[in-house]
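Reopening: DUF2339 domain-containing protein still failing for me.
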Amino acid sequence: MSLEMEQRIAKLEKEMMDLRQELDVLKQQHSAGQSTAINARKTMIKQSSPLAEQKPKSTSKPNPRPIPEKKKQPQQSLEERIMWALPKIFMVILVMGVLWGLKLVSDYGYLSNEVKIILAYALSIFLAVLANVLEHRKKGSPAITISLYGGAFIVGILTTAASAILYEIIGLTLALIIAISYIGYGIAICYLKKNEILTVFVAFTSLLLPYLLEYMDFSAVIILIYVLALFTMLQFVIYQHKQKLALYITTFFSMLAVSIIAFMNTDNRAIMAFGLMAVLAICYTSWCRLFNIESKWKHIHVGLQFSLGVFSLLLLNLMIRPIEYSEVLLFVLVILFATLAGYGYRQKWQEAFDSAITLAFITLCNTLLVMNIPEKVEDLLLPFIAFTGVMMSLRLRASLMKVVSSIIFAITIIINFMIHEPAPFFSISHASLFMPVIYLLLIYLFAMRPKESLSVFEKLMKDLYVVDFLAVITTGYFLAYISKLDAVYFAGVSNSQHMMSIMLAVLFAASLLVPAKYKGRALTPVLGAFFLLFTLSIGILPAEMQGIEWLHLLTRIIYIFVLVALLIDVLMKGRIYQIYQQQLEKYVDPTLSAGIVLTMLSIWGFVHQLAYNNLLDWKLSIALSTITLFVTASIALWLSTVRNLRTLRLTGFTILVIAFIKLIFFDLSALDLLIRAVLFIAIGGIGLLLSGRLLRKDQE
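Support: Ran it again with your exact input. Result attached.
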């Protein structure tokens, strides 16, 4: 036993020695680390000492203060927001339940009206005291205490209104004092508790007081002063705690309250209108102080600001309708919006400036509409004002104003076009119909001016071909104007629009000569499609033209001339071919084939129109139409051989086959001997000449 004890003791001593050795090694490493750190510090001090000696000689620069990092507040999750909102919802439910309970007790006659009012006030005081106790003892969440404070306010205001108006238990003056006390209490808790929903509740409930004042036969001006004072006091809470949502909601209900007061008192409409604009001015003052240009929600805030402006304009129009000089009030609103736009321009808030200047423009148009302007002057003035708005939006590069002013201008010129006629020729009605042509042309030229850089909206408009289609709209309105001239002065006998058709051909030919940077990318294709449609509809089939045969024939000749000119330009590689060389190089063959066929059909239609109008013998027209087929086939085959165009050659052979079929199966039986002889001589000569040319080309 003693031997085992001695072995254990020896083993323990050995383990103790090992532990001491490991401890010594650790101490040595620690001392070596400290000495290394001390040596490094000494070295740094020695290196920095020459710089310290030279420091007085060099210019001293103040050390930049470190910018404190802003602590990002953690965003609440959806569950946390729901949990925060539940107490407020349940408080409203509780208040409604209490009211219904009192109504039930009252219906059964258990409690008198006086007792119910006392119990309601007691409930209001109890909720406020309970919230204060929970807050001081730090029991319950802040959402609960805020809901209790808000519930006390709501119950107190509703009880005061019921006791004075419904039950007539307390005097109106005492009810007014109690209501104002509760409103002061509500504004105080809003300021202290910093809760936006509470601010909205207090504002909405406080705006019920004007109805009590109306019931007390107070002057409408006093009620208006109360609404303005309440709204102004709420701005201190809103600005202090940056409650933007509360700003929009309280502004909406304040403007609504002023409007209701105005509709209930028809004698002070002008004062109410100024009160409405005062509410809007106070709102915009707070909005400018709360607006943050770097916020990701800035577009939503600008949209709400614009919506409030439009809503105020709507209410103002309803309010000032019976007023004699209503345009003066609207002009004051124009000044208000222009002031906001000027402030936004100074602060370089492009979105806010855009919204405000658009509101000013809309209000100015509204002002002109309500002014007592002579009807003839108004016909010229309204399109001009709409045109001015579009030009202003282009000059200021205000995106929202571009959209709004363009819509207003479009509606104006559409209505203007529908109600005016170009008769008599020298009249204001005709001038009103023609002036939009100049307006559209100026807008297009101004929109096409080069810019150093494009905004996001301008890039989007460029990608959507908006400016390019503006050229199409301008041309379309001009053609529609020519169509109205046609209907009044030329197309009285028939429904054909000859002057418009001629102008379409001229514009299409002219557009081919203008570079794309001036005419846009969409004008020529659209005009080309309509030119082709009119060529097929007018140039081929004969039509009944009584009294204006010359105009119809002139239209056909112009279309034939344009087609021939285009074909010659493509063949000779003229100016039009050089402009569209990249697009035409691969499609010269089908383009020439289609052009020759259209030209042949147009000439054929022209010949038949002459016969239809008894200007040409019908037998001679049959011979000329056959000669046209053979001449067209000859030209197509000759050009295909010279230019080595396969599609054109097939087209020529096809026309030649059709010409032989017509000659053999139709012309021989329809023509007399003289015309038949002349026709065969002419066709034979043309055929021999063509054959000789083709054989000579093959031998070469």
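The mean pLDDT is 77. If you still see a failure, please send the error message rather than a screenshot.
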